[in-house]
Design a protein that fits this description.
Family: Belongs to the tetrahydrofolate dehydrogenase/cyclohydrolase family.
GO cellular component, one term: cytosol
CATH architecture of the largest domain: 3-Layer(aba) Sandwich
Bound molecules: ligand LMY7XDAE
Oligomer: single chain
CATH topology of the largest domain: Rossmann fold
EC number: 1.5.1.5, 3.5.4.9
GO molecular function: methenyltetrahydrofolate cyclohydrolase activity; methylenetetrahydrofolate dehydrogenase (NADP+) activity
InterPro entries: Aminoacid_DH-like_N_sf, NAD(P)-bd_dom_sf, THF_DH/CycHdrlase, THF_DH/CycHdrlase_cat_dom, THF_DH/CycHdrlase_CS, THF_DH/CycHdrlase_NAD-bd_dom
Number of domains: 2
Length: about 290
């Protein structure tokens, strides 16, 4: 008899959190006298990035946050972006700055991420904030991993002593989520493209976080019965019938038969990423204005 996993519903939690942020902004704004502001730097015309940036700007508007869209042409230089970051660092109405990734190939994201003032680092990718994560100090956390942790917390999924496996070692997701799980006393294994016997490792996982960037990589045979499976992948694929659809890095239909909990794609981690960005910007706003924010 096959079971069906319970969905970890990121979309619903994101809506609830955005409503809470909206009222938090209303009360802070009454004290501070201005709205929080987020600046999103987008370079070029990557269609997926354009959708994500639009969604971020729309979400800002819905919760009463100012959004300062900075859209640059595909041939923008590194120096022009540096100058834009310097201006935003100095702008008192801007509390959060993020550079939408990936950037076009001629640009180097790393020095640009380092240039963002750490107090305005809404994406949590500045080395100071990553260092605080390593040390377990409060600070701005990367949005996708923070969204995963918040979703697990919402469903009261205990992590202490659990075997957690993370597939993927990016600075955006894999490395920070491993540190966050470790901070909650999980026993963490990191797997990646060179890992041997991947299914042997994943099938030991109580908590499996998949951020591999490979459509439907994880199938039912690779998952321990009763595991919690979090799919961070977002891939647009074209089926044999020519239709385009969105899939994660997990083969949802088979894995939901063995897992206890699973995130859907869409509607799982994606909406949580946007919400944690808003959360981080409100956190920076409150922190910069001398108000505490959790
Ligand atoms: N500077 C950053 N760049 C990128 C990040 C990031 O966190 N910071 N993450 C991704 C893209 N991303 C946010 O930027 C993002 C991706 C997907 C979603 C989302 O809500 N997805 C929906 C489906 C949307 C669709 O139909 O295509 C879902 O999963 O339900 C939000 C944000 C890379 N770049």
């Amino acid at each position: 008899m096959s079971q069906t996993a319970q969905l970890l519903d990121g979309k619903t939690l994101a809506q609830k959190m955005q409503a809470e942020l909206r009222s938090r902004i209303q009360s802070l704004q009454a004290e501070i006298g201005r709205k929080p502001g987020l600046a999103v730097l987008m370079v070029g015309d990557n269609p997926a990035s354009a959708v994500y940036v639009r969604n971020k700007e729309k979400a800002c508007e819905q919760i009463g946050m100012a959004s300062f869209g900075q859209h640059f042409g595909a041939n923008t230089t590194q120096a022009e972006l540096e100058a834009a970051i310097d201006r935003l660092n100095e702008d008192p109405n801007v509390d959060g700055i993020l550079i939408q990734l990936p950037l076009p190939d001629h640009l180097d994201a790393v020095p640009l991420l380092h240039r963002i003032h750490p107090d305005k680092d809404a994406d949590g990718l500045h080395p100071l904030n990553l260092g605080k994560l390593v040390r377990g100090e409060p600070g701005l956390r990367s949005c996708t991993p923070a969204g995963v942790m918040r979703l697990l917390e919402e469903y009261q999924i205990g992590l202490s002593g659990k075997q957690a496996v993370v597939i993927g070692r990016s600075i955006l997701v894999g490395k920070p989520i491993a540190l966050m799980l470790l901070a909650e006393d999980a026993t963490v294994t990191m797997a990646h493209s060179r890992t041997q016997n991947l299914s042997g490792i994943t099938s030991e996982a109580d908590i499996l976080i998949v951020a591999a960037g490979r459509p439907e990589l994880v199938t039912a045979e690779m998952v321990k019965p009763g595991a919690v499976v979090v799919d961070v992948g977002i891939n647009r694929v074209t089926s044999a019938d020519g239709k385009s659809r969105l899939v994660g890095d997990v083969h949802f239909d088979s894995v939901q038969q063995v897992a206890q909990f699973i995130t859907p794609v869409p509607g799982g981690i994606g909406p949580m990423t946007v919400t944690m960005l808003l959360h981080n910007t409100v956190w920076s706003y409150a922190h910069r204005e001398g108000k505490t924010h959790t």
